[in-house]
Amino acid sequence: MTTLHFTNARLIDPEAQSDALGTLTVEAGVIAALNGAAPAGAEVIDCGGHCLAPGIVDLGVKIGEPGERHRESFRSAGLAAAAGGVTTIIARPDTHPAIDTPEVLEFVTRRAAEASPVRIRHMAALTKGRQGREMTEIGFLRDAGALAFTDADAVSTDTKALARAYTYARSLGALVIGHPQEPGLSKGAAVTSGKFASLRGLPGVHPMAERMGLDRDLALVEMTGARYHADQITTARSLPALERAKANGLDVTAGVSIHHLTLNEIDVGDYRTFFKLTPPLRSEDDRLAMVEAVASGLIEVISSQHTPADEESKRLPYEEAASGAVGLETLLPAAMRLYHAGHLSLAELWRALSLNPARRLGLPQGRLALGAPADLVLFDPDTPFVLDRFKLRSKSKNTPFDGSRMEGKVLATYVGGARVYAAGE
Protein backbone atom coordinates (compact mmCIF):
# COMPACT_ATOMS: atom_id res chain seq x y z
CA MET A 1 0.00 0.00 0.00
CA THR A 2 1.29 3.44 -0.96
CA THR A 3 2.62 5.66 1.81
CA LEU A 4 0.80 9.02 1.81
CA HIS A 5 2.12 12.26 3.25
CA PHE A 6 -0.38 15.11 3.61
CA THR A 7 1.25 18.53 3.80
CA ASN A 8 -0.10 22.04 4.36
CA ALA A 9 -3.18 20.53 6.00
CA ARG A 10 -5.42 22.20 8.54
CA LEU A 11 -5.61 19.26 10.95
CA ILE A 12 -8.95 19.02 12.80
CA ASP A 13 -8.27 16.91 15.88
CA PRO A 14 -11.46 16.18 17.88
CA GLU A 15 -9.55 14.45 20.69
CA ALA A 16 -7.17 17.32 21.36
CA GLN A 17 -9.84 19.86 20.33
CA SER A 18 -7.24 21.51 18.10
CA ASP A 19 -7.32 23.11 14.66
CA ALA A 20 -3.84 23.88 13.29
CA LEU A 21 -1.69 23.55 10.18
CA GLY A 22 0.43 20.43 10.08
CA THR A 23 1.34 17.25 8.25
CA LEU A 24 0.07 13.69 8.50
CA THR A 25 1.65 10.47 7.23
CA VAL A 26 -0.24 7.28 6.38
CA GLU A 27 1.48 3.91 6.16
CA ALA A 28 -0.16 0.48 5.80
CA GLY A 29 -3.63 1.99 6.19
CA VAL A 30 -3.02 3.68 9.55
CA ILE A 31 -1.78 7.07 10.73
CA ALA A 32 1.99 6.65 11.14
CA ALA A 33 3.17 10.19 11.96
CA LEU A 34 1.92 13.69 12.70
CA ASN A 35 3.87 16.83 11.86
CA GLY A 36 6.88 14.89 10.62
CA ALA A 37 8.94 14.91 7.45
CA ALA A 38 7.82 13.03 4.35
CA PRO A 39 9.20 9.45 4.27
CA ALA A 40 11.29 8.47 1.28
CA GLY A 41 9.10 7.39 -1.64
CA ALA A 42 5.88 8.67 -0.12
CA GLU A 43 3.16 10.18 -2.28
CA VAL A 44 3.00 13.81 -1.16
CA ILE A 45 -0.46 15.41 -1.15
CA ASP A 46 -0.56 19.19 -0.77
CA CYS A 47 -3.82 20.00 0.96
CA GLY A 48 -3.61 23.68 0.09
CA GLY A 49 -4.50 24.76 3.61
CA HIS A 50 -7.78 22.88 3.52
CA CYS A 51 -9.13 20.86 6.45
CA LEU A 52 -8.10 17.25 7.06
CA ALA A 53 -10.25 15.50 9.67
CA PRO A 54 -11.21 11.98 10.72
CA GLY A 55 -13.87 10.50 8.47
CA ILE A 56 -17.42 10.90 9.76
CA VAL A 57 -18.94 7.95 11.66
CA ASP A 58 -22.65 8.22 10.87
CA LEU A 59 -24.70 6.47 13.54
CA GLY A 60 -28.20 5.50 12.39
CA VAL A 61 -28.32 5.17 8.59
CA LYS A 62 -31.19 3.33 6.89
CA ILE A 63 -30.21 1.30 3.84
CA GLY A 64 -32.82 -0.46 1.73
CA GLU A 65 -31.17 -3.86 1.58
CA PRO A 66 -32.82 -6.24 2.11
CA GLY A 67 -36.31 -5.51 0.90
CA GLU A 68 -36.19 -1.92 -0.35
CA ARG A 69 -33.21 -1.85 -2.67
CA HIS A 70 -35.09 0.55 -4.95
CA ARG A 71 -34.78 3.20 -2.23
CA GLU A 72 -31.12 2.69 -1.36
CA SER A 73 -28.58 -0.08 -1.95
CA PHE A 74 -25.29 -0.71 -0.20
CA ARG A 75 -23.56 0.48 -3.36
CA SER A 76 -25.47 3.76 -3.67
CA ALA A 77 -25.27 4.46 0.07
CA GLY A 78 -21.53 3.81 0.03
CA LEU A 79 -20.97 6.16 -2.91
CA ALA A 80 -23.09 8.87 -1.25
CA ALA A 81 -21.21 8.44 2.00
CA ALA A 82 -17.81 8.70 0.31
CA ALA A 83 -18.89 11.89 -1.44
CA GLY A 84 -20.07 13.27 1.90
CA GLY A 85 -16.93 12.47 3.91
CA VAL A 86 -18.62 9.61 5.78
CA THR A 87 -16.15 6.74 6.11
CA THR A 88 -18.15 4.52 8.48
CA ILE A 89 -21.89 3.91 8.18
CA ILE A 90 -23.66 2.42 11.19
CA ALA A 91 -26.75 0.94 9.56
CA ARG A 92 -30.15 0.57 11.22
CA PRO A 93 -32.05 -2.74 11.34
CA ASP A 94 -35.40 -1.33 10.13
CA THR A 95 -35.25 -3.31 6.89
CA HIS A 96 -37.63 -5.85 5.30
CA PRO A 97 -37.13 -8.31 6.88
CA ALA A 98 -35.65 -6.71 9.98
CA ILE A 99 -32.07 -7.56 10.90
CA ASP A 100 -33.12 -9.76 13.81
CA THR A 101 -31.27 -13.05 13.25
CA PRO A 102 -27.57 -13.89 12.80
CA GLU A 103 -28.35 -15.20 9.30
CA VAL A 104 -29.81 -11.89 8.11
CA LEU A 105 -26.97 -9.99 9.79
CA GLU A 106 -24.35 -12.15 8.11
CA PHE A 107 -26.07 -11.64 4.73
CA VAL A 108 -26.13 -7.83 4.95
CA THR A 109 -22.57 -7.75 6.33
CA ARG A 110 -21.32 -9.73 3.36
CA ARG A 111 -23.31 -7.67 0.84
CA ALA A 112 -22.08 -4.41 2.34
CA ALA A 113 -18.44 -5.53 2.20
CA GLU A 114 -18.83 -6.49 -1.46
CA ALA A 115 -20.64 -3.37 -2.63
CA SER A 116 -19.62 -0.35 -0.55
CA PRO A 117 -16.43 1.71 -0.85
CA VAL A 118 -16.78 2.80 2.81
CA ARG A 119 -17.07 0.77 5.99
CA ILE A 120 -20.58 -0.39 6.89
CA ARG A 121 -21.32 -1.88 10.30
CA HIS A 122 -24.76 -2.93 11.47
CA MET A 123 -27.04 -2.62 14.43
CA ALA A 124 -29.51 -5.43 15.06
CA ALA A 125 -33.13 -5.38 16.19
CA LEU A 126 -33.75 -5.46 19.93
CA THR A 127 -36.96 -7.47 19.55
CA LYS A 128 -38.04 -9.98 16.92
CA GLY A 129 -39.51 -8.28 13.89
CA ARG A 130 -39.11 -4.98 15.75
CA GLN A 131 -42.52 -5.78 17.24
CA GLY A 132 -41.59 -5.04 20.85
CA ARG A 133 -42.72 -8.37 22.28
CA GLU A 134 -39.93 -10.94 22.27
CA MET A 135 -36.22 -10.15 22.48
CA THR A 136 -33.83 -11.24 19.77
CA GLU A 137 -30.85 -13.54 20.35
CA ILE A 138 -28.68 -10.65 21.46
CA GLY A 139 -25.68 -12.84 22.29
CA PHE A 140 -25.60 -14.61 18.92
CA LEU A 141 -26.14 -11.32 17.09
CA ARG A 142 -23.24 -9.72 18.99
CA ASP A 143 -21.05 -12.66 18.01
CA ALA A 144 -22.12 -12.10 14.38
CA GLY A 145 -20.97 -8.48 14.54
CA ALA A 146 -23.91 -6.37 15.72
CA LEU A 147 -22.62 -3.15 17.30
CA ALA A 148 -25.83 -2.21 19.10
CA PHE A 149 -29.49 -3.16 19.44
CA THR A 150 -32.48 -1.03 18.50
CA ASP A 151 -36.00 -1.26 17.14
CA ALA A 152 -35.44 2.20 15.57
CA ASP A 153 -38.71 4.15 15.44
CA ALA A 154 -40.88 1.11 16.27
CA VAL A 155 -41.37 2.00 19.93
CA SER A 156 -42.66 -0.87 22.07
CA THR A 157 -45.66 -0.46 24.34
CA ASP A 158 -44.69 -3.61 26.28
CA THR A 159 -42.50 -2.26 29.05
CA LYS A 160 -42.06 -5.70 30.64
CA ALA A 161 -40.67 -7.10 27.39
CA LEU A 162 -38.32 -4.14 27.14
CA ALA A 163 -37.17 -4.65 30.71
CA ARG A 164 -36.24 -8.26 29.89
CA ALA A 165 -34.36 -7.16 26.79
CA TYR A 166 -32.51 -4.40 28.66
CA THR A 167 -31.59 -6.85 31.42
CA TYR A 168 -30.23 -9.40 28.96
CA ALA A 169 -28.33 -6.68 27.08
CA ARG A 170 -26.82 -5.55 30.38
CA SER A 171 -25.58 -9.08 31.13
CA LEU A 172 -23.71 -9.07 27.82
CA GLY A 173 -22.52 -5.46 27.95
CA ALA A 174 -24.50 -4.72 24.78
CA LEU A 175 -25.51 -1.17 23.86
CA VAL A 176 -29.25 -0.46 23.55
CA ILE A 177 -30.32 2.42 21.33
CA GLY A 178 -33.74 3.89 22.03
CA HIS A 179 -36.05 6.22 20.10
CA PRO A 180 -37.52 8.44 22.84
CA GLN A 181 -41.16 8.91 21.92
CA GLU A 182 -44.37 8.02 23.75
CA PRO A 183 -45.97 5.84 21.04
CA GLY A 184 -49.59 6.60 21.85
CA LEU A 185 -49.19 10.37 21.70
CA SER A 186 -46.94 10.14 18.63
CA LYS A 187 -49.23 7.93 16.56
CA GLY A 188 -50.50 9.68 13.45
CA ALA A 189 -48.63 12.92 14.15
CA ALA A 190 -47.15 14.80 11.22
CA VAL A 191 -45.69 17.90 12.89
CA THR A 192 -45.00 19.32 16.35
CA SER A 193 -48.18 20.65 17.96
CA GLY A 194 -48.53 24.39 18.33
CA LYS A 195 -49.66 27.47 16.47
CA PHE A 196 -48.00 26.46 13.19
CA ALA A 197 -49.64 23.01 13.23
CA SER A 198 -53.02 24.59 13.96
CA LEU A 199 -52.66 27.11 11.15
CA ARG A 200 -51.79 24.34 8.70
CA GLY A 201 -54.48 22.01 9.99
CA LEU A 202 -51.98 19.21 10.53
CA PRO A 203 -52.08 16.59 13.31
CA GLY A 204 -49.38 17.38 15.84
CA VAL A 205 -47.58 15.72 18.70
CA HIS A 206 -46.72 17.62 21.88
CA PRO A 207 -42.96 17.91 22.60
CA MET A 208 -43.67 16.25 25.96
CA ALA A 209 -44.11 12.94 24.11
CA GLU A 210 -40.35 12.82 23.69
CA ARG A 211 -39.76 13.58 27.35
CA MET A 212 -42.21 10.86 28.38
CA GLY A 213 -40.53 8.30 26.15
CA LEU A 214 -37.11 9.28 27.44
CA ASP A 215 -38.26 9.11 31.06
CA ARG A 216 -39.45 5.53 30.52
CA ASP A 217 -36.19 4.52 28.85
CA LEU A 218 -34.09 6.10 31.59
CA ALA A 219 -36.17 4.38 34.27
CA LEU A 220 -35.47 1.05 32.54
CA VAL A 221 -31.77 1.89 32.41
CA GLU A 222 -31.79 2.72 36.13
CA MET A 223 -33.62 -0.53 36.87
CA THR A 224 -31.45 -2.81 34.72
CA GLY A 225 -28.08 -1.06 34.51
CA ALA A 226 -28.07 -1.31 30.72
CA ARG A 227 -25.85 0.79 28.46
CA TYR A 228 -28.13 3.19 26.59
CA HIS A 229 -27.99 5.72 23.77
CA ALA A 230 -30.95 7.92 22.75
CA ASP A 231 -30.88 8.15 18.97
CA GLN A 232 -32.46 11.61 18.73
CA ILE A 233 -33.09 14.21 21.40
CA THR A 234 -34.90 17.14 19.79
CA THR A 235 -36.70 19.13 22.51
CA ALA A 236 -35.46 21.32 25.34
CA ARG A 237 -37.89 19.57 27.71
CA SER A 238 -35.81 16.37 27.45
CA LEU A 239 -32.47 17.90 28.42
CA PRO A 240 -32.96 18.12 32.23
CA ALA A 241 -33.87 14.42 32.37
CA LEU A 242 -30.80 13.53 30.34
CA GLU A 243 -28.61 15.68 32.55
CA ARG A 244 -29.99 14.08 35.73
CA ALA A 245 -29.41 10.58 34.37
CA LYS A 246 -25.76 11.35 33.69
CA ALA A 247 -25.32 13.03 37.06
CA ASN A 248 -26.72 9.88 38.69
CA GLY A 249 -24.04 7.78 37.02
CA LEU A 250 -26.18 6.00 34.43
CA ASP A 251 -24.35 4.82 31.31
CA VAL A 252 -26.35 7.08 29.00
CA THR A 253 -25.48 9.07 25.87
CA ALA A 254 -27.59 10.90 23.32
CA GLY A 255 -27.61 12.00 19.70
CA VAL A 256 -29.40 14.48 17.49
CA SER A 257 -29.92 14.63 13.74
CA ILE A 258 -28.35 17.35 11.63
CA HIS A 259 -31.83 18.29 10.41
CA HIS A 260 -33.01 19.12 13.93
CA LEU A 261 -29.88 21.25 14.44
CA THR A 262 -30.30 23.30 11.26
CA LEU A 263 -34.06 23.39 10.49
CA ASN A 264 -37.22 24.20 12.43
CA GLU A 265 -40.97 23.63 12.16
CA ILE A 266 -41.54 26.77 10.06
CA ASP A 267 -39.43 25.24 7.26
CA VAL A 268 -42.33 22.88 6.53
CA GLY A 269 -43.92 25.93 4.89
CA ASP A 270 -46.72 25.04 2.54
CA TYR A 271 -46.79 21.31 3.23
CA ARG A 272 -43.32 20.51 1.88
CA THR A 273 -43.09 16.78 2.51
CA PHE A 274 -39.29 16.64 2.21
CA PHE A 275 -39.36 18.32 5.64
CA LYS A 276 -41.51 15.59 7.19
CA LEU A 277 -39.25 13.78 9.66
CA THR A 278 -39.50 11.43 12.65
CA PRO A 279 -39.54 13.03 15.18
CA PRO A 280 -40.97 16.12 13.47
CA LEU A 281 -39.07 19.38 13.22
CA ARG A 282 -39.30 21.45 16.38
CA SER A 283 -39.48 25.12 17.36
CA GLU A 284 -36.56 27.49 16.88
CA ASP A 285 -36.09 27.60 20.67
CA ASP A 286 -35.75 23.81 20.70
CA ARG A 287 -33.29 23.91 17.80
CA LEU A 288 -31.06 26.41 19.59
CA ALA A 289 -31.26 24.34 22.78
CA MET A 290 -30.00 21.30 20.85
CA VAL A 291 -27.11 23.30 19.42
CA GLU A 292 -26.14 24.43 22.91
CA ALA A 293 -26.44 20.86 24.22
CA VAL A 294 -24.01 19.65 21.56
CA ALA A 295 -21.60 22.49 22.35
CA SER A 296 -21.68 21.64 26.07
CA GLY A 297 -21.29 17.91 25.45
CA LEU A 298 -24.66 16.98 26.96
CA ILE A 299 -25.60 15.58 23.54
CA GLU A 300 -22.59 13.70 22.27
CA VAL A 301 -23.44 12.60 18.72
CA ILE A 302 -24.60 14.30 15.51
CA SER A 303 -25.89 12.00 12.77
CA SER A 304 -27.65 12.26 9.43
CA GLN A 305 -30.45 9.80 10.33
CA HIS A 306 -30.36 9.07 6.59
CA THR A 307 -33.79 7.72 5.61
CA PRO A 308 -34.34 7.29 1.87
CA ALA A 309 -37.88 7.51 0.47
CA ASP A 310 -38.92 7.25 -3.17
CA GLU A 311 -40.84 9.94 -5.04
CA GLU A 312 -44.12 8.03 -4.83
CA SER A 313 -44.04 7.92 -1.03
CA LYS A 314 -43.16 11.61 -0.68
CA ARG A 315 -45.44 13.13 -3.32
CA LEU A 316 -48.54 12.60 -1.21
CA PRO A 317 -50.61 14.84 1.08
CA TYR A 318 -48.44 15.81 4.04
CA GLU A 319 -50.21 13.56 6.55
CA GLU A 320 -49.86 10.52 4.28
CA ALA A 321 -46.31 11.11 3.03
CA ALA A 322 -43.42 9.00 4.28
CA SER A 323 -41.20 10.47 6.98
CA GLY A 324 -37.47 10.93 6.67
CA ALA A 325 -34.76 12.54 4.59
CA VAL A 326 -31.51 11.46 2.99
CA GLY A 327 -28.42 12.98 4.59
CA LEU A 328 -25.20 11.12 3.82
CA GLU A 329 -24.02 13.74 1.32
CA THR A 330 -25.53 16.77 3.05
CA LEU A 331 -24.38 16.05 6.61
CA LEU A 332 -21.06 17.84 6.28
CA PRO A 333 -22.24 21.00 4.45
CA ALA A 334 -25.26 21.25 6.76
CA ALA A 335 -22.91 21.01 9.76
CA MET A 336 -20.92 23.87 8.28
CA ARG A 337 -23.96 26.08 8.92
CA LEU A 338 -23.31 25.63 12.64
CA TYR A 339 -19.63 26.45 12.15
CA HIS A 340 -20.20 29.56 10.05
CA ALA A 341 -22.88 30.79 12.46
CA GLY A 342 -20.30 30.63 15.26
CA HIS A 343 -22.18 28.00 17.27
CA LEU A 344 -19.54 25.24 17.11
CA SER A 345 -15.88 25.03 16.15
CA LEU A 346 -14.75 22.44 13.63
CA ALA A 347 -13.07 20.45 16.42
CA GLU A 348 -16.32 20.48 18.42
CA LEU A 349 -18.29 19.39 15.37
CA TRP A 350 -15.93 16.50 14.65
CA ARG A 351 -16.07 15.41 18.26
CA ALA A 352 -19.80 14.82 17.71
CA LEU A 353 -19.61 13.63 14.09
CA SER A 354 -16.73 11.22 14.41
CA LEU A 355 -14.93 10.76 17.73
CA ASN A 356 -17.91 10.27 20.06
CA PRO A 357 -19.93 7.84 17.91
CA ALA A 358 -16.81 5.74 17.34
CA ARG A 359 -16.03 5.71 21.07
CA ARG A 360 -19.59 4.80 22.04
CA LEU A 361 -19.54 1.84 19.68
CA GLY A 362 -16.02 0.73 20.60
CA LEU A 363 -14.55 1.48 17.18
CA PRO A 364 -10.97 2.67 16.56
CA GLN A 365 -12.04 5.34 14.05
CA GLY A 366 -12.68 9.03 14.69
CA ARG A 367 -9.19 10.11 15.77
CA LEU A 368 -6.08 11.74 14.34
CA ALA A 369 -3.74 9.62 16.43
CA LEU A 370 -0.79 7.34 15.79
CA GLY A 371 -2.01 3.87 14.89
CA ALA A 372 -5.59 4.97 14.23
CA PRO A 373 -7.16 3.85 10.93
CA ALA A 374 -6.45 6.31 8.15
CA ASP A 375 -10.12 7.09 7.54
CA LEU A 376 -9.92 10.73 6.55
CA VAL A 377 -11.87 13.51 4.88
CA LEU A 378 -10.22 16.47 3.15
CA PHE A 379 -12.66 19.36 2.79
CA ASP A 380 -13.01 23.08 2.23
CA PRO A 381 -15.48 24.52 4.77
CA ASP A 382 -16.02 27.70 2.77
CA THR A 383 -16.87 26.62 -0.79
CA PRO A 384 -20.40 27.86 -1.59
CA PHE A 385 -22.84 25.94 -3.76
CA VAL A 386 -26.55 25.48 -4.39
CA LEU A 387 -27.69 21.94 -3.68
CA ASP A 388 -29.33 20.08 -6.56
CA ARG A 389 -30.96 16.93 -5.24
CA PHE A 390 -30.75 15.23 -8.62
CA LYS A 391 -26.96 15.29 -8.36
CA LEU A 392 -27.00 13.30 -5.12
CA ARG A 393 -25.59 9.79 -5.36
CA SER A 394 -28.33 8.31 -3.20
CA LYS A 395 -31.02 6.49 -5.14
CA SER A 396 -33.66 8.50 -3.29
CA LYS A 397 -33.55 12.28 -3.56
CA ASN A 398 -35.70 13.29 -0.57
CA THR A 399 -33.57 16.06 0.91
CA PRO A 400 -34.97 19.16 2.62
CA PHE A 401 -31.91 21.09 1.40
CA ASP A 402 -32.84 20.96 -2.29
CA GLY A 403 -32.20 24.39 -3.80
CA SER A 404 -30.56 25.66 -0.61
CA ARG A 405 -27.40 27.77 -0.56
CA MET A 406 -24.80 25.81 1.37
CA GLU A 407 -21.10 25.93 2.17
CA GLY A 408 -18.58 23.12 2.55
CA LYS A 409 -17.17 20.84 -0.12
CA VAL A 410 -15.58 17.43 0.30
CA LEU A 411 -12.39 17.32 -1.76
CA ALA A 412 -11.32 13.72 -1.05
CA THR A 413 -12.22 10.80 1.21
CA TYR A 414 -9.90 8.02 2.32
CA VAL A 415 -10.75 4.68 3.96
CA GLY A 416 -7.82 2.78 5.40
CA GLY A 417 -5.49 5.04 3.45
CA ALA A 418 -7.18 4.25 0.11
CA ARG A 419 -8.86 7.12 -1.70
CA VAL A 420 -12.53 6.29 -2.26
CA TYR A 421 -13.68 9.71 -3.49
CA ALA A 422 -12.09 12.70 -5.17
CA ALA A 423 -14.02 15.82 -6.21
CA GLY A 424 -14.31 16.16 -9.97
CA GLU A 425 -13.65 12.50 -10.73
UniProtKB/TrEMBL annotation:
Superkingdom assignment: Bacteria
GO MF: allantoinase activity; dihydroorotase activity; metal ion binding
Domain Dihydroorotase catalytic: residue ranges: 50-235
Listed GO CC annotations: cytoplasm
Query: GO annotations under biological process?
Result: purine nucleobase catabolic process; pyrimidine nucleotide biosynthetic process
The alphabetical list of record keywords is:
Pyrimidine biosynthesis, Zinc
In this protein, which residues make up the domain named Amidohydrolase? 343-421
Pfam families from the UniProt entry: Amidohydro_3, DHOase
Q: Which NCBIfam families match?
A: pyrC_multi
Q: This protein is called what?
A: Dihydroorotase
- Gene field: pyrC
